[in-house]
Amino acid sequence: MEQYNNKAIASLVLGIVSLVCIFLGYFTIIGIVCAIIGLIFAIQIRKAGELEGFKPSGMATAGLVLNIIGLGLCALAFIACVACVGIIGTAGIYS
Amino acid sequence: MYPIIHFLNYSIPTFGILFLIGTGAAFLLALITAKKYAITTMDAIFFGLFGIIGGIIGAKLLFIVVDFPNLIAHPETALIRLAMGGAVFYGGLIGGILGGFFYTHIYKLHTIQFFDIAVPCLALAQAFGRIGCFFNGCCYGIPYEGFGAVHYPVGAYPPAGIGLFPAQLTESAFLFILTLVLLTVLWKSKSPGFTTGFYLIGYGIFRFINEFFRSDPRGIVGFLSTSQAISLIVIGFGLLFLLKIPQKLYEKHLKY
After folding, report:
1. Span B203-214, pLDDT tens digits
2. Taking the CB of residue A85, how many other CB atoms lie within 10 A of it?
3. Which of A82, A84, A94 faces B59 most closely, judged by CB atoms?
4. CB distance from A36 to chain B under 8 Å?
5. What is the domain extent for residue A38?
6. Which chain B residue lies closest to A83 (C-alpha atoms)?
7. Distance CA B94, CA A72 (A)
8. Does a structural domain hold residue A54?
9. Residue A68: inside a domain, yes or no?
10. Is A95 a domain residue?
11. A2-30: per-residue pLDDT in tens?
């Protein structure tokens, strides 16, 4: 349980960091990396809760939600239409 | 054409907004499609999230591989180039599939069933993405004056002043219809993998035809466009799914 508590805290912190990174301009990629790591932690905890039969803490749930929002918002400015070009779609549409 | 929406002091790309709306709608649809194979909501959502994570990592990794000579040649701008963007579509596609597969593999779930419930959601997300393309001005069509011709303003990315075929909107409309058809197919199909095959063939054929009505600069493979070459491969994979070959291989070698 102890390791899950630590992971929950880590997930929550990474979620908050990823939300802050939205304002970093070009470096929202740091937010994306944080959100991905935090999301993996949060998913690990929830699946472990399901398989081992314990209720995930509120912190883990908060981490999951914050990381999803962080990933979505950081990716917002980062996504370009990669599907239409087919070969290399370069993003970075800041203006 | 509105490639960027100004909100307070921020400039937000319209494609990004439509992409997020599409992703959200896809996750909501996944809650319904998951009922087909009695998959829990949590598993369906986590599968999607792993797919997205895999997609981002794959797109970025392949970009680094493809762009490695440039990154080495100009180390002073390498960090900015890496941070600013740059993603390779194939990497995202392969990474997304591997991400989803990885999730089902570590938690011992049936991968093919998950692909089946994911394809209608993918089609829906793509449909919204194409509307984003329309606003962005990319993926525009051939010159055409007739019903539904689009005239982009001066200064836009597509050629201004002439009527263009609304290739993005036809694809979007097709994908919305395909979503409904896929939902029906999913509900009626009795063998896992059939819906995936149906999607791959249906989308592959449409994309192949729709490419003839597009005139934006994009890669060429022989006498076909890159997307048409991919479409042929996609159709091939779809046929394999209909013939149940991936399903058999999966049952034999990969399933727990």
Report:
1. 999 989 988 888
2. 20
3. A82
4. yes
5. 2-85
6. B89
7. 21
8. yes
9. yes
10. no
11. 778 889 999 999 999 999 988 877 778 88
